[in-house]
Design brief:
Layout lengths: L1 H13 L3 H21 L1 E2 L4 E2 L1 H10 L9 H4 L1 H4 L1 H10 L5 H30 L1 H4 L4 H28 L2 H24 L4 H12 L4 H25 L6
Antiparallel strand pairs: 1-2
């Protein structure tokens, strides 16, 4: 953990503007998402299925710190180059992976606060539920989901090259779209469902605790699988 924290601290120091760009980007996402969530269809006021798709796709992105490496992974295969450099240092592979998990946790905390404040402040649909218990429960429910998908992204970062990472990310988004369509076919809406449970149960919401448990388990599984395979990966 100490070595992982040293890597994390150095990464923040070497990218002084990353936090600023990250906050601005997340503010933009929250601003945009608030309008999507507020779009209602039909006389019964059902939420637009686009809200499900955008939440499924965007929430995992709250686990990223947006620096040059993040935006250049396709053109320069920046993640692979970073791993190749770190391998030359006397640092265990486990510390490198743990550092990435630390950054994801910090990102979910900071980005989550910014994103959901903008979402709740600007979305009349969610403001109707009101109450801090609802806000916290709703946010943690989706962050738990985001952690689960972020675990997949971390696995891909460490074990795939830039182009493969890009195409696999598109497949994840395609799956999110298919899930949104399937939920719509059954006349349901994931945002509405999570909002209902958050309103009814607040911090005791089984959906919230289930999502958080799934997210933590996903990160743990990703760590174990990545550690086992990264040791053998050829970075040349």
């Amino acid at each position: 953990m100490k070595q992982a924290w040293a890597i994390t601290r150095q990464d923040f120091r070497s990218n002084p503007y990353a936090l600023l760009w990250t906050v601005l980007f997340i503010m933009y996402l929250g601003f945009t998402m608030s309008f999507v969530v507020s779009m209602e269809l039909g006389e019964r006021g059902a939420l637009n299925p686009a809200a499900d798709f955008v939440m499924l796709v965007l929430t995992p992105f709250l686990g990223f710190i947006y620096n040059r490496r993040t935006f250049k992974y396709l053109q320069e295969d920046s993640y692979t180059h970073m791993l190749a450099f770190l391998r030359t240092l006397p640092i265990p592979v486990s510390a490198v992976i743990m550092s990435r998990i630390q950054q994801a946790i910090f990102a979910f905390i900071g980005n989550g606060v910014v994103f959901f404040i903008f979402l709740f402040a600007l979305s009349g649909t969610l403001r109707a539920y009101a109450g801090p218990g609802f806000f916290i429960s709703f946010a943690l429910t989706w962050i738990g989901y985001g952690m689960l998908i972020q675990a997949i992204y971390m696995y891909l970062e460490f074990l795939k090259r830039g182009k493969a990472y890009f195409w696999l990310s598109l497949i994840i988004m395609l799956i999110c779209g298919m899930i949104s369509i399937m939920v719509r076919i059954y006349a349901a809406n994931l945002v509405s469902i999570t909002a209902f449970y958050s309103k009814e149960w607040q911090l005791l919401s089984p959906v919230m605790w289930g999502a958080l448990a799934a997210g933590v388990f996903g990160i743990f599984v990703s760590y174990r699988m990545t550690l086992r395979k990264l040791i053998k990966r050829d970075l040349a």
